[in-house]
Design a protein that fits this description.
heterodimer, A: alpha+beta, 3 domains, five-stranded antiparallel beta sheet, B: alpha/beta, GMP Synthetase, Chain A, domain 3, 2 domains, nine-stranded mixed beta sheet, four-stranded mixed beta sheet, 13 strands, 28% strand
Chain lengths: 553, 433
């Protein structure tokens, strides 16, 4: 399935990516010596057979950490053990009610055998442990890591191994409706800050062992878990390898949002265009996985990343696939128009009214001229002022608490829409233009693309004010050339337009019906291009209308 | 870093070049423009020319409807007529710029009106309007008797500006429309001579203006004021008739009938109305009258050479629909319908022949473009007569065959009222609209 363009493309892609040397997978261990001094490692601590010594070491490590809870007791009234957990991260109720009680009441026979060291530490797991997710830990570093992730660590007298019991349970937000990507029809679940809940949301939609989830821990201090998720049968192994490589490259002290990662793994970091899509909808991630993409989930943020990302993804909305395809196609086209309006309308207005007056119908020209009569600013300045104030207004409305935000928008609408016009500072046509532009930029489903266009709008506006349509064309040309150079994990950003692939157009400007979307995007899901059987289009029953020779696949 | 910079430098200069090397560096705010909506070209004494432009005052145009709103105030004059003289039009235009505080915008010009005297001097003066970057070749050109400037000074009526009025009338397709590019083609073609539709100022008839007064709408008030102040009937404008050129000079005028014939022969008619009179027949006491709307009309011209004589066979065909019948019509009798059809055909033929007579005998100019038809179908013969085509044309025989068919009767197939007295009203003319 790989097209003729794939090969040179990949070559270019790997040339760009220089081998980054032998670096440790875990950011924690650090690379150079200077970093070692900055972030002292736990290598110098060792787990010993002596419980007391181990506990002392842990006390040193967790000095002045008031949320670390430590408790000693006797297993089966014989063997001295200690448990350590972090209050708030571990399920205290579980530890107290189940774990401690079961261990204390364990058979003395077993405890004696353990004390004699005639039994291995795993016996504890096998015989009396009331939990399933238990790991044997043999060094201090991973013990500390387990502890910090909310596990309860069980240390036994006489063993230089410890048991990490998964008791992770902390307060988190309930799964709610997505805020940024709400739909009328479709699942109302959104990712939350808890990584485990997020992976469960995906797993619940993809009940197949082919769904893989690899974990990488990033951030020296935050130790954020990052999950690379993909469908093994569909994913492009090159892309997957590249995702892994770029993630492992990251040396950072902390990751608070997936945007941190996004900026560190982009193909072209200086581009204004977003090259990685993000979403808070599990169904969107699953749809992407089904196309052969890779999802990147980050702990402590509800936003997952999707790679590779194409330009057209930013005018697709999840709801397109849940509504009837006529409406979806219409909305797609409307969004495409909105994209152009959001980028070009003020510029086009300025260009037409200051350079190309012959393009306007006479009546419109007269109307505009009469409105501009006595306006003190040139049209460009007028447009810049209005656009700027609109941006400020929007920003103020977003940042303020909801109650105050409303007041701001009322004041803004009054000042900008009404007072400025009646004071003769701005022409009514300009208000309409700015309002249309604003509405159009909100009509885009992707906020990331909307803000990009918002920035470019100012540049094109200035070009239009100095050079007219010629300037607009120059600006568009530069943008187009730039878009053509972009790749997202080796996949051309403008696919399927460049490189041209007609069959991929089933999901670009229009959304064809489900029964016509038989293949995956050729640039991404080429490993298994067939998505569904042909001939899925519903027809009257076969008896009345036989369909000969319909092949299945 | 350095290498990056060095690589980017040529591109930067290339980019910089695009700013200065490109053409349209001319920013003009929309409110600094004087929008010209109509232009009249006249001759001025002493070989000079007079350029008159109708400049729109946007304030007045936009302010009128929105403020007046139905209060019924007099619609303000939407623009101002400014005229200057010069030895040629560019000089006059420069003079104009001295007088107008804004920059002239020619590209919105709606109509070009030629004055009679200037048309007599020749069309070469149009050079300014074909050469200029802002001028549009799609501007309709009209000709008027007397001064073109008078047309511009027409008071506003239904539309606010003279340009809109004239283009509006042209859009009704009651007559033909010649755009600047058509005019140039007619002028350049050796087998054709320019004709331009004529715009005439008609004093509004007394009767109509009285009716308007009693109507009491905006136009009426306007009319009464004008009438009261200036003791002059309000003027209206109409496009009827045509001015015919021989080569590039005005040769004569075609009246309404002849102009109709002209456009039939040029094949520029598609639809229109013809009113015909019918002699009294069985049921009627008086003469009847009927009007038909014709559509999908088409003209075919075939030149033939018989011996020494050049003959043009003109065939005109089309379909008619009965629009108004002031007669006792019985749809069951085909003779009635055939009578109407024949009368219509005769009326069209008369018009065409009137135009031909005028062109051949009076103007001696091929205003029908028949030379071009000859050029296309008999190029060899054409090359013989090309040099003295207009004379040749005057001698040519033009045979006209009209074949308009009455196919529909409209929404009713009888005349209302049994025995209708009709003939006396419609006076005499059988005019096409």
């Amino acid at each position: 399935m790989p097209g003729p363009y794939r090969k040179p493309l990949r070559a270019a892609f790997f040339r760009r990516q220089q081998p980054s040397g032998q670096q440790d997978r875990k950011g924690r261990s650090g690379g150079g010596k200077a970093q070692k001094m900055l972030y002292p490692t736990l290598e110098e601590y060792r787990l010993t057979a002596e419980l007391k010594l181990n506990l002392e070491q842990l006390h040193v490590i967790f000095a002045k950490c008031c949320d670390v809870v430590h408790r000693d007791f006797y297993l089966g009234q014989v063997l001295k053990v200690g448990i350590i957990y972090i209050d708030g991260l571990a399920d205290k109720k579980l530890v107290e009610d189940t774990l401690v009680r079961t261990l204390q009441q364990g058979s003395p026979q077993l405890a004696r055998e353990l004390a004699d060291r005639s039994r291995d530490v795993t016996t504890v797991m096998e015989k009396i442990m009331p939990m399933t997710d238990v790991a044997v830990v043999d060094n201090m570093a991973s013990l500390v890591k387990h502890l910090l992730e909310g596990d309860t660590v069980l240390l036994l007298e006489g063993y230089n191994k410890a048991l990490a019991l998964s008791t992770r349970s902390w307060e988190h937000r309930a799964i709610e409706e997505p805020v940024a990507e709400s739909v009328v029809r479709g699942p109302r679940e959104s990712f939350i800050e808890s990584l485990r809940a997020n992976t469960a949301l995906i797993r619940r939609r993809l009940k197949t062992p082919s769904l893989k989830m690899e974990t990488i821990c990033l951030g020296r201090y935050t130790m954020t878990n990052v999950v690379i998720t993909y469908l093994e049968d569909l994913v492009d192994p090159m892309v997957l390898r590249e995702v892994r490589r770029r993630l492992e490259r990251i040396q950072i002290d902390g990751i608070l949002e997936s945007a941190y990662i996004e900026e560190l793994i982009e193909d072209n970091p200086s581009s204004p265009f977003p090259q990685i899509d993000h979403t808070e909808r599990p169904d969107k991630v699953v749809a992407a996985l089904l196309e052969g993409r890779v999802g990147i989930l980050v702990d402590n943020t509800p936003f997952a990343l999707i790679v590779p990302t194409l330009f057209i993804q930013f005018i697709q909305s999840c709801e397109d696939y849940y509504e009837r395809y006529y409406l979806s196609s219409f909305l797609r086209l409307a969004r495409f128009a909105a994209l152009n309006i959001a980028l070009l309308l003020p510029a086009a207005y300025v260009a037409v009214s200051t350079f190309h007056q012959e393009m306007l119908p006479t009546n419109l020209l007269i109307r505009l001229a009469s409105q501009r009569e006595g306006i003190p600013f040139p049209a460009v300045i007028e447009a810049l002022i209005m656009e700027l104030s609109f941006e400020l207004l929007r920003e103020a409305g977003v940042r303020l608490p909801r109650q105050v935000g409303q007041a701001v928008s009322i004041v803004g609408a009054l000042v900008i829409g009404e007072a400025a016009v009646s004071a003769g500072l701005v022409s009514p046509a300009m208000v309409i233009v700015v309002a249309l532009t604003g509405i159009s930029s909100f009509a885009l489903p992707s906020f990331a693309m909307a803000i990009t266009l918002r920035l470019l709008r100012f540049i094109i506006l200035i070009l239009a004010g100095t050079l007219g349509f010629y300037g607009i064309m120059l600006g568009l040309l530069v943008i187009l050339v730039h878009l053509n150079t972009l790749r997202s994990f080796g996949v051309p950003y403008l696919a399927p337009v460049t490189p041209w692939n007609f069959s991929d157009f089933k999901d670009v400007l229009v959304r064809t019906p489900r029964w016509a979307m038989n293949s995956r995007p050729s640039q991404i899901g080429y490993r298994d291009p067939v998505r569904q059987g042909a001939g899925l289009k519903p027809t009257p029953p076969a008896s009345s209308n036989p369909r000969p020779g319909e092949g299945k696949s | 870093m350095i290498s990056w910079f060095r690589r980017a430098l040529p591109f930067f200069f290339l980019f910089l070049g695009t700013f200065f090397l490109a053409g349209c560096w001319s920013r003009h705010e929309i409110e600094d423009l004087a929008i010209i909506s109509a232009v009249a070209l006249d001759a001025a004494p002493g070989d000079r020319v007079r350029l008159s432009v109708y400049v729109i005052i946007p304030r007045a145009v936009a302010g009128g409807p929105s403020m007046g709103g139905g209060g019924g105030g007099e619609p303000a004059r939407a623009g101002e007529v400014i005229s200057t003289t010069g030895s040629d039009f560019i000089q006059a235009a420069r003079r104009l710029e001295e007088m107008v505080p804004r920059r002239l915008l020619w590209s919105q010009n709606r109509v070009l009106i030629l004055g009679e005297e200037l048309a007599g001097r020749g069309l070469s003066y149009l050079d300014f309007f074909t050469r200029g970057r802002q001028m549009r070749l799609t501007t309709p050109v009209l000709i008027t008797r007397g001064e073109g400037r008078k047309v511009l000074e027409l008071p506003p009526g239904v539309e606010l500006t003279t340009g809109t009025i004239l283009t509006g009338i042209l859009r009704n397709r009651t007559t033909f429309k010649i755009e600047l590019k058509d005019l140039l083609v007619m002028w350049e073609a050796p087998g054709d001579n320019p004709v331009l539709p004529q715009v005439v100022m008609t004093p509004t008839p007394e009767l109509e203006s009285k009716e308007v007064k009693s109507g009491g709408d905006t136009g009426g008030q306007e009319g009464s004021q004008k009438g009261g102040e200036e003791k002059k009937p309000p003027e209206a404008v109409a496009i009827r008739g045509a001015g015919a050129f021989r080569d590039d000079r005005l040769a004569g005028w075609l009246d309404e009938e002849e102009a109709k014939g002209l456009i039939w022969l040029r094949g520029e008619v598609e639809e229109g109305v013809i009113t015909v009179e019918l002699p009294a027949r069985g049921g009627d006491k008086d003469d009847g009258q009927a009007s038909v709307i014709f559509h999908r009309a088409g003209t075919q011209v075939k030149p033939m050479i018989e011996g020494n004589r050049l003959i043009f066979n003109v065939e005109i065909g089309g379909k008619c629909e009965l629009a108004e019948a002031l007669m006792n019509l019985d749809p069951d009798r085909p003779e009635d319908l055939l009578a109407i059809q024949e009368a219509v055909n005769r009326a069209v033929e008369e018009r065409v022949l009137a135009a031909v007579r005028k062109a051949q005998q009076e103007l001696q100019a091929d205003i029908f473009g028949l030379g071009e038809v000859l050029h296309r179908s008999k190029p060899r013969y054409w090359h013989q007569v090309q040099e003295h085509w207009n004379e040749e044309f005057s001698r040519a025989q033009i045979q006209v065959k009209i074949n308009l068919q009455l196919t529909r009767l409209g929404m009713t197939n009888r005349t209302s009222g049994k025995s209708r007295e009709a003939g006396g009203k419609g006076a005499s003319q059988g005019s096409t609209r």
